[in-house]
Design a protein that fits this description.
- With about 120 residues, this protein is mostly helical.
- It contains six helices and three strands; from the N terminus they run H-E-H-H-E-E-H-H-H.
- It folds into two domains: about 10-70, Winged helix-like DNA-binding domain superfamily/Winged helix DNA-binding domain (Arc Repressor Mutant, subunit A); about 90-120, no CATH class.
- It is elongated and about 45 Å long.
- The chain starts with 7 loop residues before the first helix and ends with a helix.
- The mean pLDDT is about 90.
Amino acid sequence: MSDYQLGAVESRFADIIWENEPISSAELTKRSQEQLKWKKSTTYTVLKRLCDKGIFQNNGGTVTSLLSRQEFYARQSRRFVQESFDGSLPAFLAAFTSGKSLSAEEVAQLRRMIAEFEEK
């Protein structure tokens, strides 16, 4: 996948697919019209763009994901940290938490994540 960016509307469209896959292109068009107020042509244009990005595929009128929602956002997050913080997760966390205190539960979650990573 070459592009890990989705705009707000593309994200909503992707969510429709992830929540209903496998989904027929006809059903996707119907849901896009209901939820996004899109015309059929808009649905197919955005679907093609997301297929070209390697996120979804449309085989014989059935749309499925090539990446799960979790995989996509994990890749997007890694790319953001790489581009914005030279790949430094500590630098990202410092920026993310500046001016905001972490709750005890958030600190505990981070410690568990670090412990799990160290075990691998």
